[in-house]
Amino acid sequence: MATGEIQNKPPIPVVGHLITDDDIGVKQGIKIQPINFNKVIKLLTDPHSTTLYDRHFHALQRLIKHYRNGLLLKDLVQAFKIINVCADRSAEHPAYLQPMKELLKICSLPFLKEKSSDETVYSQIVTESISQLGYLMRVPNREIRLELANTILSIYIRKPSNQAFRDQLPCSQAYNIAMLESSDVAETLVKSLSLMEQDLEMKLCLMNVLQHLSGFSKVNCDKMLSADAASRITSRMNEQDPSGRLLFRSIEILWNLVENGNKEEVSRQLNSLVCINALKDAFSQQMTQGYSHYDRQLRNDLLVISTLVASNCREAPFIETGFAKQLMLFATFQEVRSHNALVKYLKLGTNPEDFELKKLLINILVVLSKDPTSVPLLSESNVILALLSYVHPNENTSQPQEWSPAQFEEIQLHVMAALCTLGPLCVQDYMDCQGNTRLLLLLEWCVGKDDFAGHGNSFHGLGGRGNKRAQMRYSLHLMRSMVSLRDPTVNQDVSDQGAINQILDIVQSATRSDMADDAIDVEMQCDLLYILSILCSGEQHRKELFGEKGVDSVLRYLKTDPKKLQSGLGHHRMMLATVGAIWCCIVGATLNEDQFFEGEGIFLLLDLLEGAARNMHNLILGCLTDLCENPKAVSHLVTWRGKSDQTVGKLLIRIWKEEEKELGVVRKEDGTIADPTKPLIGVLQESAGVTSLPANSPSQAIVDISENMRAKIYAVLCKLGFEDLQGLSAEDQVTLCIIERYMDFKQGEVWNEITDELKQEGVRPVTPDEEALAVIGRASQELASLVVDLQVEILESESQHDLLEEQELYSQIKENHKQAEGTIEKWQDYVDRTSNYEVLKSAKKLQEMSIEKSRLGNTDRQLGSFHDTDLTNLQTTTFQGRQVRVDSTPRNIVNEATMKLQMPDKSRSVKLHESSYIFAQ
């Protein structure tokens, strides 16, 4: 009954109460109510409501009011449709400009997203919307354009505010920047500059935006450059502007394009008469009329940009515009008097900006000198005279209006680095200004004991703090640059002033110093050796001046620890410079060669050849080849022994094999010639083939001689002789057969090339010449075949020799085994005789029989003087003397046996030492 009542009880009704977060106030912040954009767009675009302006403005104001805190990402398409409609209507009805301006202000606020995925979903829409902002620059209204510029700038630099929204979040600044970079607004703004020619304020505002967009973004810079931003901005940067902001903004944008964009593209866009003229006028204006710190900075920035253009575009019209001559004037007016009006009242102070300007002017002289047409201007402007005025000993004090010692040192080093480039271009100016004299005096001051502590500032002063090394380093750089010209006048002038002895003193002190060398010391020693090599090359008198002092220094360099060649400090370059000095300063001078041989120089060169890297072999072999012209050198070469007692012949053959492996010459596994038709040709020479060349052009066979070391190895071995070389294996002798016929093979190659060239040119020689060419070709192949036969014979002989040695070894092993077997048999017999009495008796009988057979007859027994040789009761089976030593019986047994043993004849006793046989009574 109760159960039925429960089942029939009517259900309790459930009332659903939905309470949102907004009702209880959980969500805080601004709530943006959505609005129907489609109705607004239809109202603005419908032909029936086109003239309902009041309704249009009312709807737009309502839209602006709803979205005054920002636009949703999903509404950007409709919002920008409305903005574009207002832009199109503004030409007929200017009242649309105000709502358009308000909408643009809203666009400057961070866009709002409802979901985290909205940024990805609507990224393309955001990009296109930002691009639309740039396109709106077409609206010919100043206020709208200013607002557009502010909006774009706000999107790029404004950070999201802390204002809270319900159900929405503002997009991050990084997202806004990424979307703006993916749009083409930067390119559009550059193109819009042409619309602002008559409105300076608007142009400055737009350039401010471009300055921010290019400040840290490579993407924006590349897009701006695609619109010729550098050319457009530079060509207009000198327009009338009382505030000076136009020039400042232009230079800042150019700097950003240089730093973040493609430097080559910037230079290419500035490579025009208009742009170079603009840079020239701006620099001249700032140079002559700028006095503030701000003006000096702009001046230096302009010079840096000009330097960049000149370095990347050698054909830039600096000379045509007169900019190059103007720069040379500004660079030299302090040192060389000029009556030019530009520098009449111009003075440079010692402030950092003017100091920087001086270095930049010196630098751009070097850059401009890459154009050969600028060399006459350098001479005309007395550039060398102005620069050489800094080549003199430094002082520790300065006058108030002069460069400080630190500034002078930095400029001096910069000048000498520039002279290394400019001096060789203006040799006559250098000689007229007594450049060698100034340089040698400075070098003498560098090695002197005058008190001077270098400041070591800047790149050029590296390693020169507290010493004169920086000045000495660049003095040697400059001298090396000048003597490298091999101009007889310059080199004779240097030699006449005692440069060789002066340099040798420096080299000698360097070789005898106990201090460890760093990279700069090694570099300077390389320069010293290189200068000596150039001065003494081909000059017998200068080689005599090199003399004993120079040879001793060179020998010390050759004794450098080989481990230092891999230290990374440049010792390998110093070793190459040493070999070059031997070649130029010692070879060809009899006295120098004799002293070099006495100091074991040949041995040191061979040691260097054995342990040096492959890229040094060519120079060392060339030097050895020339030294072998002296007969005394051959005995040194033959006497030398390297690691593992290696001879010079084996060393040269090893280098030959490595060279052929590098050239790709085909050889069999045993080293013999693989193809008799091309015994010396490598992969590179074969791939080049035979081409028709002019008579004055060397063919591949001739070029091959100079491009590898085989000819030098052949020349050295010719001096040594091919018959008496020691320490060679069969493989080495096989290779030696090829080396010995190197010249014959090379002649065959040349004749084959002549034949092939005639065929390619379609020229048929006369019959006698054709027969001669055929005979020469067959002779070359027959020679190669003979060499192959000789190589095979050498290998077979070596194989037979190895086989005989193997048989001798086996015979020796067999003899050793036979002796061991005999020893075992002897031991077994001894064991049998000592352990078995019957065997002992048999052995005794055999011994007696052997003795009897050895006698001549029995006649001696009949004589009375016969003495028996046997000892009575002696049971040994070997011939014994008076003393017997047996090492197999212990001492205690020997003592017992001695006590029992009674000898019948005391005169014939057996003395036992340490041990003895046990004899039976």
Automatic annotation (TrEMBL):
Q: What is the top-level taxon of the source organism?
A: Eukaryota
Kindly give the Gene3D superfamilies that the UniProt entry links to this protein: Leucine-rich Repeat Variant
Q: Where is the Cilia- and flagella-associated protein 69 ARM repeats domain?
A: 36-754
* UniProt GO cellular component terms: non-motile cilium; sperm midpiece
List, alphabetically, the InterPro entries matched: ARM-like, ARM-type_fold, CFA69, CFA69_ARM_dom
**Alphabetized UniProt keyword annotations:** Cell projection, Cilium, Flagellum
For this entry, list what GO says about its biological process: positive regulation of flagellated sperm motility
| Stretches of the chain forming a coiled coil according to its record | none
A UniProt-annotated Pfam family: CFA69_ARM_rpt
Family annotation (PANTHER family): CILIA- AND FLAGELLA-ASSOCIATED PROTEIN 69
**What is the protein name for this chain?**
Cilia- and flagella-associated protein 69
